[in-house]
Amino acid sequence: MSSPIKQGLLKRRGLDAAELTEIKQLAALCNNHEGLDLKLNWGILRQRPSDQLNDFLYYVDGQLVGFLALFSFAAREGEISGMVHPAHRKGGIFQILFEAARQESISRGLNSLLLIVEGASPAGQAFVRHLPTTYDHSEYKMVLDGPQLPQEMHKHLHFRAAHPQDIPVLSYISAQAFQVPQDEINWYTEQKLSEANRRYYVGEVNSVIVGIIEVSFSEGSALIQGFAVLPEYQGKGYGRQMLARTVRELLRANPQSIWLEVMTENKQALALYQSCGFKEIGCYDYYRLPLKH
């Protein structure tokens, strides 16, 4: 007996291999149509928990024509990113996906959603203009284009892999560097530190951890993220040396690309990445939508 043809909205707790393939094909079509690089966090999509509703798919006669992903990196804040097949736009599909994600976010007690829209996406920009959103920030996507790395390590800096016992310090440094309440930082766990597609590094000065940096691997590429140095140790060259050491470690693994994201207004970090050989290849705008409970 054949399976019923998928039709309309499907809410998923975890994605199977067939759905991931459909999403990837739809993303490639949308990217080619508008010359975009949609932000879908593939490493996360492939490891969705089966007990949490995060992904919303829309089918027409068995074909996936719309997808929206919900992410939550902070305790009371969600992020969403999605797409609709160019031939099925202006039919209200994204509104259906968005409303399903909004209701799920409210049920979780989230206070706001960040809508991620590529700056070069007319369809995405038009959608957020019709919502009561406020502009929050923008981030450049940067890719390594010919490393320009300092040769010598700072003699006082010790660079090593993070250990589970470092987790409280990692949370503290992130809270200090990103000005986020420490009790909202929940992404450092023993499970995360042990995952094969992730690496966590720390920089120590006189046995004190002063900086952290994370790498995740997906689709043959390496993403540098969570890069933070304690404020009192910034401006001393430790961050540059940590970044250089991380890039050297990654080059040994020979990924297809090494990339990162940085807020456009963070001129100091932008200059650091540019000086080490990273170049801007895209820009993502973030719009905040308050959620009414």
From TrEMBL:
Could you list this entry's UniProt keywords, alphabetically sorted. Acyltransferase, Transferase
PROSITE patterns to which the protein is assigned, alphabetical:
GNAT (PS51186)
Location of the N-acetyltransferase domain: 15-147, 157-293
The organism sits in which domain of life?
A: Bacteria
Q: Which CDD domains match?
A: NAT_SF
Q: Name one Pfam family in it.
A: Acetyltransf_1
GO terms of molecular function: acyltransferase activity, transferring groups other than amino-acyl groups
Q: Does the keyword Acyltransferase apply?
A: yes
The molecule here is called: GNAT family N-acetyltransferase
Please give the organism: Ktedonosporobacter rubrisoli
